[in-house]
Amino acid sequence: MTTHTTSETSPAIRLGLQANLAQFSLLVVVNALVGGMLGQERTVLPLLADDVFHLSAYTAAMTYILAFGATKAVTNFFAGTWSDRYGRKPVLIAGWLIALPVPAMLAWGPSWGWIIAANILLGMNQGLTWSTTVIMKIDLAGPERRGLAMGFNEAAGYVAVAATAMATGAIAEHAGLRPEPFLLGAAYVVLALGLSTFAVRETRDHARFEAARHVTPAGSEHDAELTTGQIARLTSLRDKALSAASQAGMVNNLNDALAWGIFPLLFAAHGLSIAQIGLLAALYPAVWGAGQMLTGWWSDRIGRKHLITAGMLLQAAAIALVAAGTTFGVWATAQILLGLGTALVYPTLLAVIGDVAHPAWRARAVGVYRLWRDGGFAVGALLAGALADAYSLTTAIWAIAALTAASGLVVALRMYETHPRS
User: Fold this and answer.
1) pTM (2 decimals)?
2) Cα–Cα distance for residue pair 104/380, rounded to 1 Å
3) Has residue 90 been placed in a domain?
4) What is the largest CA-CA distance in the chain?
5) d(CA 39, CA 88)
6) How many CB atoms lie within 10 A of CB 78?
7) ∠7-25-38 over CA atoms, to 5°?
8) pLDDT for position 348
9) Within a domain: residue 419?
10) How far apart are CA 407 and CA 251, in angstroms?
11) What is the 3-state secondary structure (H, E, C) of the chain?
């Protein structure tokens, strides 16, 4: 690995996973703790809505996902802008400071309004911390291994989601739905704040180093001098790859809102125990998380577009299988397939953004993409809840399966291949 210096007196800045292994590995650990904060809710909160707070309407029960998704989506946008303006590390620390009261609010909040407020703070935490760890890993990895870097990042986060969902389900089975399951989250936030404050180093200079050597093709509109508004329009609408990635990301997280808020209620309605529901809630993100270490690397080898298309279509088939199933075995198979489909898509979409966006405004492009992607939580909560209230749980699931298949076809028809080797 060649060492490059910005001047004779400045410290060496090197791009690549091997050159930045210690910091990259530390950021993987931090992102695992980010995922754990989300995982503490996956099994327990849908059951809390039903058993403790007695919310009879599905739309009302999904309000915590709506609050989380809307807040996280908006915070993602600002995370990219702020990390360019103030640096990555201050944004990361701010995200963990915001998370400090969340476990206590979930564990002892006396009304559903407290749960919604906790999820607003959690959305801010996830938007600031997850976005920033993504940006920092892209900064460190350089152009050659973005897919692999995003695979490690997302794998760490979602394996932690799965492990924590399973752990909280087991704790709830023996100790009750509150407060014990949320003590894990309290430990996560304290550890993550300490690591982010005392061990994580700033990476913004790595992006500036790459930007100084970035060659923009003649006639391209992807130059370094773009306003935030221009970046938002380019990422959302004008660039075919960026806009296709943005819509696929939104539908992907719409699916996650369905799996988070509706699937546990469907499983409970068919008589599954809390422990079984916890296992199913963990199986999908476990396969998703572990699979990304392979799929991110794979996208560096064969390109991005076809993996994204296949992943969206596989997710659609898995969701349809959930709607058609009535037994633990069928649902376990569906959760595995859903995890595989999501693993094909999730790190690959982020790699597309890294491929296309100029290093000078890449953080803001990631923020815009994640605005759309995590807006899927809010859209999914509203759509799935409304359809379940008006018709049934299975109708909501069938409708979202069809929407996911349509999203995969949009990628197939609109996205161009972005990986430089392809």
Assistant:
1) 0.79
2) 27
3) yes
4) 69
5) 24
6) 18
7) 125
8) 93
9) no
10) 7
11) CCCEECCCCCCEECCCCCCCHHHHHHHHHHHHHHHHHHHHHHCHHHHHHHHCCCCCCHHHHCHHHHHHHHHHHHHHHHHHHHHHHHCHHHHHHHHHHHHCCHHHHHHHCCCHHHHHHHHHHHHHHHHHHHHHHHHHHHHHHCCCCHHHHHHHHHHHHHHHHHHHHHHHHHHHHHHCCCCHHHHHHHHHHHHHHHHHHHCCCCCHHHHHHHHHCCCCCCCCCCCCCCCHHHHHHHHHHHCHHHHHHHHHHHHHHHHHHHHHHCHHHHHHHCCCCHHHHHHHHHHHHHHHHHHHHHHHHHHHHHCCHHHHHHHHHHHHHHHHHHHHCCCHHHHHHHHHHHHHHHHHHHHHHHHHHHHHCCCCCHHHHHHHHHHHHHHHHHHHHHHHHHHHHHCCHHHHHHHHHHHHHHHHHHHHHHCCCCCCCC
Spatial distance between the Cα atoms of 141 and 144, rounded to a whole number of angstroms: 7
Which tokens in the block code for residue 222? Answer: 């992807």
pLDDT confidence of residue 374: 87
Cα–Cα distance for residue pair 252/244, rounded to 1 Å = 12
Task: Kindly report, residue by residue over 399-410, the tens digit of the pLDDT.
Answer: 999 999 999 999
**Residue owning tokens 């930045």:** 20
Structure tokens at 275: 């422990």
Cα–Cα dist 198/26, whole Å: 11
Tell me whether residue 215 is in a domain: no
Looking up residue 152, the CATH number of its domain turns out to be: 1.20.1250.20
Tens digit of pLDDT for each residue in 105-145? 999 999 999 999 999 999 999 999 998 998 898 889 877 77
Q: How many CB atoms lie within 10 A of CB 11?
A: 9
Nearest to 131 by CA among 216, 55, 34: 34
With both helix axes pointing from N to C terminus, report the angle between 146-175 and 274-302 in degrees, rounded to the nearest 10: 180
| Residue numbers of the domain that contains 46 | 17-208+226-414
Task: Tell me how many domains the chain contains.
Answer: 1
**219 within some domain:** no
pLDDT of residue 5: 38
Going by C-alpha positions, the residue among 303, 292, 293 that lies closest to residue 344 is 292
